[in-house]
Amino acid sequence: MTLIPWVIPIRVVDLLEIGLVAYILYKLYQLMRGTIAVQIFVGILALYIIQLIVTAANMTIMRALFGSISEVFVLAVIILFQPEIRRLLLLLGQNPLVRRFMRSPAQQERIDEIVGAIKDLSQRRIGALIVFERSTGLRSYIETGAQLHAQISRDLLVTIFYSQNPLHDGAVIIRDARIEAARCILPISTSMKLDSNLGLRHRAAVGLTEVSDAFVIVVSEETGQISTASDGELRRNVSAELLSGRIVEALASRFQPEPEPAPTTT
Question: What contacts 142, CB < 8 A, 6 or more positions away?
Fold first, then answer.
């Protein structure tokens, strides 16, 4: 008699599931490492192993006892691991990939307006310097410019940097999905790593990112080339097609829904 080996078919979705579970467990381990939650987890695991033994041995009284405990087990886990679960959800929410899929239509519309303005400026070779505030406050730089507090608009951004506009010389600073100010003065980088041919706009972009976590977009007046600056580094010749993704990854946490206008009273 020929024995047919027992083979478990493995699908692609099974591999994806294994990878996802492993990733979640690894993140949970990172969150719980060095905390009292590890000891609680070991205790819960020990209870689960005892329950398996009791079930296998068919101990009636112990099975009834563990059965009553299992009814509140999920609720107990949520209560005991509340800080760790909250931190895990916060990490997932801050993940750029998750944010890319969770963008609201209003957020996407603002990003499209910004990218459209930069495309126009690049094609017309109009110099531009656009700063996005992140976690580091830029109030001191906002106060050096002209206060606008305006909604993000493609036409407005292009108009600001038009050479005949008195606001074109300087930086536009965007905070919380609004254009806070224009004609702002930024610190100039003195880094020797930068190309000596770079102008003040590019050096100002790098200079601000050296003292803050701001994200900056620069359009060259000479070539129309688009560059981005963050963490003291300058990335040159960024295509307009890739720019949207860069903005999402860097600034998703700052694009919050605008508050509803207060009802007017008569």
Answer: 173, 175, 180, 181, 184
